[in-house]
Request: fold
Amino acid sequence: MLKIIAAKRGAAFAMLAGAIVLCVRTNAQTAAVLQAPVGQAAGQSGAAAAGEQQSGPVALTLKSAIEMALRNSKDIQIAKLQASMAQHATQVSKAPFLPNVYAGSGAGYTYGIPETPGGRAPSLFNLTYTEEVFNEPLKGQAKELEEQARSQRIVLEDVKNSVIVRTAMAYLELGKVRHSLELLRAEQESADKILQVTQERQGEGYELPVEVTKAQLTKAQVTQRVLQLEGREDELEVFLQGQLGLGHEQAIEVTPEELPGEAEQEGANLVAIAMQNNLGLLLAESDVRAKEFRLKGEKRGNLPTVEAVSTYSLLATFNNYSEFYKKFQRNNFNAGVQVQVPIFSAKTREDIGLAQINLEASQASLASKKTQVSAEVRQKTRHLRERDAAKEVARLELQLAQQNIGVLQTQYTEGKVNLREVERARLDENEKWMAFLDANFQRQQAQLDLLRTAGQLDKVWQ
Reply:
């Protein structure tokens, strides 16, 4: 009987030793990752996760993913159409200042003096030419629409920036999720073996049932986290497939990267850079210029308007022109200018007042936007520094947890500590590792937000 018990104990300790060796190997790997640059570590995890994908995955870098998104985004296509519509509206507003020729006919039966409802004589065929030569209110409206067309190009750039941010965030998060899954799946194997050893020791009377429950809870928690991350991985992959124009069955292989750090290193100059490049601010400035053009045109509404006009008419003999006019000829041509001098125009006065109010509203909005952008840049710069500090704290906590578990594993092999303490240290190391990945991703989020506010998103992918 003693031999049998001894054999069982030997087998249990052998399995436990195997679990500890696995933990040592896992910790050695994660420690090596910590010592390497984060981008290099993330690249290793991205390669491992990509290996689990189906055959023929699309290997993407952050730059290539953003370029594909910019080519295939539906939002950008809609913004381009809106910019084109604004450009066509500008051309329509300029049409009165270009030659306009119309042909038609006003033939009909007349009784009495021949005339049409428009005041012109009935004609078999007529040709009319018009062209605005001087009309300041109309010119101001045309310039306003032209400036609004330019603002639509700014809106297009803003839509592109939104696509860049969404794509970059999804790409980086997918790399983080896959790296986390790689670690958790290795942790699952360790949890299974530790649970098996704990159950055997509890059967032999060396562990209380509560320790088995704790081991089961640990395994269940790891499984739950794996399922959650697998769901998030699927969501991110589907989103990227839609953004990049890929098929739903097309697997994606990512290589997590670090974002460039030039923007937050600009210091106090970053506010000045944002004042020049922030798209929201540029849009507000464009709106002020458009309102200035409109007010300038309306204020010149008291000036005369000049329009070049010309008409040709081919008249018919059956309209009895000879009975009412001393001389009749079929072909008639007139050319000249039409000048209108406003003496009193209530509409002009109200148009000026409305344009003035619109300009003042736009100027107030611009001043508010400048204050807002300046405050946002400072606040987001501070937030990014806080994320930097949080990332460094998470890295050191992870390093400390790894060193602690290494010490406990050595002590366990010497019989100085029990399995429960080693397991708690392993769980703590796993939590610290996940916290480090989250801290790094939160820093990337803060950096992208700052780059967009400062108008420096081109640094992400160029």
Q: What stands out?
A: The longest strand covers residues 125-134. Residues 1-55 have pLDDT under 50 and may be disordered. Residues 132 and 362 are 30 Å apart (CA to CA).
